[in-house]
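so my prof wants the structure for this chain in the tokens format not the other one, which i didnt know existed until like an hour ago. anyway here's the sequence
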Amino acid sequence: MADECFTRPRLAAIHDALDPDRSDLDAYVRMAEEFGARRVLDVGCGTGVFALLLAQRGVEVTGGRTSSRRTAPY
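here's what i got, hopefully its the right format
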């Protein structure tokens, strides 16, 4: 279950702007590339930042989340 603060629509709208440095995801992107991943299930995808990084590289991504308010519309 998501923390209460993450169910607020206003937080979902500004979350990525508050944490713009997502270099922490570089290692996971490299792993997907090393494994030759063509499809990835992103469980707990949040606002979809990781899913978008993979999709930009041609990976088919399905994101799953517990809070519909957390995922920003793209």
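also thought this was worth mentioning. The first strand starts at residue 39 and ends at 43.
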